[in-house]
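Dissemination and training. As part of the outreach component of the grant, students in the summer workshop were shown how a complex can be specified as a set of sequence lines and then modelled as a single object. The example used during the hands-on session is reproduced here so that future cohorts can follow it. Participants entered these lines:
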Amino acid sequence: MKRGSLYTLAYAAVLGLVCALTLSAVDGFTATRKAANARAEEVRNILTVLGVPVDADAAPQELLRVFEDNVTEEERGTRTFYSYEHSAKGFLRAVRFGGPGLWGRVEGFLCFEEDMRTISAVTFYRQEETPGLGGEISSSAFTDQFEGLSAVGPDGSPGIRVVGDGADDINEVDAISGATMTSDKVEDMLNRTLEEMIGRDGFDG
Amino acid sequence: MARADKQACATCGKGVCDGKGVVTFKDGVWHINPVAVQVLGICSALAVTNRLENSLVMGAALIFVTVGSNLFVSLLRNITPRRIRMIAEVAIIATFVIVFDQVLKAYYWEMSKQLGPYVGLIITNCIVMGRAEAFALSNRPMVSMVDGLANGLGYAAVLAIIGFFRELIGTGGLFGHQLLSEAWYTPNQLAVLAPGAFIALGFLIAIFNAISGANREEGSQR
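and obtained this result:
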């Protein structure tokens, strides 16, 4: 049977419509759960960087409950601060940071002790650096170095350094071998945040 | 065309699979296994097989998509205008892939994060489009579903085997549980990195072809 262009157009329109409606229905059906998952993911990252004890396979509702019971959210300007009274480290305050990595955007949380001069922890929750090289920024071997790191250099200027020749100073951590680009970019994005934090008013000390 | 189909069916009496259900199934899983014989769908087969669990979910995703898309491509085969048939196939395939992806995001968030973009990339997987073009377009719905199932299973089985060995060798465990004691087994991380995927797949294809005799060059002796 010979069919005209009109038939082709009508067929395409109907097929497109049916597919679109199917997808809209599925999206509507799963929207609540997807949003809850995304929120739980964010909450888990915040709890991790603040060192709030939480079960590794806690359900989304459980995470939200722990978060609401322990963490205070506070908006200051464009940033949101998350604070928590840690049993050993005292008052902690975490903030989101991010910037371009080597292949894509890198995002994480930076956690300060009460003096806003000492870093308590750094985590990366989103990165697509080279697996095995730059990707190691997410590994504990790299992030553990930030615990107790000074956010100011020996001369008092804000900023940390990710160095390739051995970390000596109070504000230096070891870079990752073979991942100079990623290390430099991570240093840049952390320092941009640190300069903003330490240069700003509103936090004592 | 449509009428000829019906007549053949009414007279042959071979059931909904036109008497070729079993052959179709064996072909998909074994004789023309999409990964091991045709070497299709390699990108995802290499990328997600560093964990057995990932491999199984990815296999399930592909089975869902090939069965669903083959069914609908076959149902619509007589009313689809030839000129836009490939676009129509892609639309159908994409719908199934996105449905699976969304459900995964809602009910299996951790896995969804692990698989990353590879579920979405099933849309461009040669196996799915290949089965729609080569089989569903010229066969009836039931046997097309069998073909989709068989090819999906063929793909899933290969992924499961590769995932099994990569995770076991690379981490010394399966499903995240340690099986080989670290006292005497040092996990070989090469297996879970990209080169390990190529090596594992290469071995698998070689062994598979040696057993099945597929891809043997004409005139060559065993």
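Chain B touches chain A at residues 76, 79-81, 83-84, 87-88, 91-92, 94-95, 98-99, 102-103, 105-107, 109, 193-194 (CB under 8 Å). Students were then asked to discuss how this feature might be tested experimentally.
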